[in-house]
Amino acid sequence: MSDQKNQYVTIPRLFAKKEAGEKIVALTAYDYPMARIVDEAGVDLILVGDSLGMVVLGYENTIPVTMDEMIHHTKAVSRGAKRALVVGDMPYFSFHLSEKETIFNASRFLKEAGAKAVKIEGASPRRLKLIESMIEAEIPVMGHVGLTPQSINHLGRFRVSGKTPDEAKRIVQGALDLQDAGVFSVILECIPKELAEEITTRLIVPTIGIGAGPHCDGQIIVFHDLVGFMDGYLPKFVKKYAYLHETILGAVSSYSDDVRHKQFPEDAHSYHLKSGFDIRDLLDKKREK
Ligand code: KIV
Questions:
Q1: Which residues contact ligand 1 via a Cβ below 6 A?
Q2: Domain-embedded: residue 283
Q3: Residue 286's pLDDT is what?
Q4: 132 is annotated as an active-site residue
Q5: Ligand 1: which of 187, 216, 225 to mutate, judged by most atoms within 8 Å of the beta carbon?
Q6: Residue-by-residue DSSP string for 83-135
Q7: How many whole angstroms separate alpha carbon 183 and alpha carbon 135?
Q8: Considering the domain boundaries, does residue 274 fall inside one?
Q9: Containing domain of residue 77, as a range?
Q10: Ligand 1, residues 50, 147, 230: which to mutate, most atoms within 8 A of Cβ?
């Protein structure tokens, strides 16, 4: 492992990377083995995204994800991540009722689940005030603009954001406002690459893109998409680096065939009695007594 891979990733280190023009590598993870692999590979930031709801829990979108589900999975990820910065995603309705409840929920990611920061979608004036309050409570916050999946019921479907002049201006303003509110980084999701480049140039804090082109300070993608865990539709911005769905399907089908055809377990997978006695003899003798 290189020295860089051994260094514990902190928020100042992410800023240093932006300054040095070094790309930040971010990825989602949702459990212990995933976090161990992602960490071992040298990823800088692990987001326990509320995408958990869709890729792990089988929900249609991220709306049903609860705080307890997020905490449960963030705990597992924190146990597996020794080096990467772990960020917990504030799920829908964990920050909509009051400032007090928002800060309490955000603090759970740090106090109970071992995360170092939280992420929150949106940049409305009310959201910005909440972000300021969280930061005041020593909770580092990552912002998120562009496509914000928790707005699915307004949007109707997941789609590219910021193509029109009005939308583009709103997204730039949102990113600037988030920076003013004190976030340490901003996720730019599904926006035109020219817009992401402009935001990245204007911000001091690092931008992390997903479907936002190559000019962001870093990139993030959903773990399951990267490794091809699921079959079916993937957005255009995903690059599959492995085909786990096919690999796992092949493995499970072979196992099923082997069990059905009595090919598994073999002797090599079986335990034996200590040599020197025959279990049938022993039991039969006992019965005779
Ligand atoms: O929930 C998530 O995984 C996310 C990232 C894709 C940015 O918000």
A1: 28, 47, 49-51, 89, 187, 189, 210, 220, 222
A2: no
A3: 66
A4: no
A5: 187
A6: SSEEEEE--TTSSSS-HHHHHHHHHHHHHTT--SEEE-----HHHHHHHHHHH
A7: 8
A8: no
A9: 3-246
A10: 50
Q: Which amino acid is at 161?
A: S
Distance (Å) from CA 181 to ligand 1 centroid: 21
The predicted model scores a pTM of: 0.94
Q: Which two tokens stand for residue 164?
A: 């029109």
Pairing of strands 24-28, 218-219: parallel
Q: Which residues of the chain have pLDDT under 70?
A: 1-6, 286-289
Q: How many structural domains are present in the chain?
A: 1
Q: What is the pLDDT of residues 190-225, one digit of tens each?
A: 999 999 999 999 999 999 999 999 999 999 999 999
d(CA 242, CA 228): 6
Residue 28 near residue 49 (C-beta atoms within 8 A): yes
Q: What is the CATH number of the domain that holds 211?
A: 3.20.20.60
